[in-house]
Each structure stands twice: as structure tokens, then as C-alpha cells.
Amino acid sequence: MISAQQAYNKIIGLLDKHGAEYKLFNHRVALTYEDLAAVQKETGFVGTEGKCLVLKCDNNFIVYITIQGQRVNLQRITEVVGVKKVQLANAEDLKNQFDALPGCAYPFGFDESVNIYIDPVIYSQEWFLFSPAVPNATIQVRGIDLKMIFDNLPNKVKEVIDFNI
Prior knowledge:
Radius of gyration: 15 Å
Number of strands: 8
Order of helices and strands: HEHEEHEHEEEHE
Largest sheet: 8 strands, mixed
Helix content: 25-40%
Strand content: 15-25%
Distance between the termini: 32 Å
Number of helices: 5
């Protein structure tokens, strides 16, 4: 398992290494979309809020990244991933596997054995917002720059267009 601080450092390192245009905002703890909306007004960051889901697929974990407001089709994920059961990781799973709190799942920077599935709509966002593994920070990054990051990760990364309802 990677610690939240290690993941944070890895995320920032990857953004810097690949020349991504981003801004890091430190703020009060925000664990829900409602909290984040209030923090967004206070700090001034703008963009489309990311939705990073950690899913337990049988006994393994995957991460699916899309944008806020999308409803996810777990049955379709079951079919595509080729497993019997898919469910959202619970708080204990998030803590044990990613050292993350609910609401602070992050899109990359975790163990390379975790497969990543991406809704390519994230790449068309002028600014994409996500938690860098800690509840008191938000990263605002150009959507197009995320493509470069995901293309260079050691994780298995797959773009999917049919995981949302």
C-alpha cells in the first residue's frame, strides 16, 4: 500500500515530469461534492469535478475516472472487466489499499497493479479537478494534459466509452 503522502508526492511528480499545466489549491477539508463546491467559491478554482471511483472487482481493485454527474453502469463494468461482481470500494478498502478517505480517491499515483479505466470525456475538459489523495487540496489540470500522464503510467490504462448510463 502507498501512503496518502506518497501518492500526493507521486501525483505532483508525474504532473511536473510530463509538463502538465496545473494549479494546486490548498483549502479546508472537503469530503463531499457539496463541501467542494463551497471550497471552490472560497478559493477560486474552476473546472469540471472529476469522479474517481475505486471499484472492487471480485478480489481486485480498479479505478474508473469520469466526470461528476455521470451515473455508472456496474453491470457493464462487470462484463468488460470480465468478473463476477463489481462494487464500490468501502471506506475500509479505500484506507487499506489507497490510504484514501471517501471523497478523496485519486486518478493515478497508486500501485501499478491497479488497472485504470478512463472515460475519454475527461480529456476534453478545459480544467479537470481532482483530489491529490488528501482532503485539503485540489488539483486543477488541463484535461488534455491528463492524456499524456495516463499514456505514460506503468498501470494498465484503458479508455472506455460505455461505463456510464
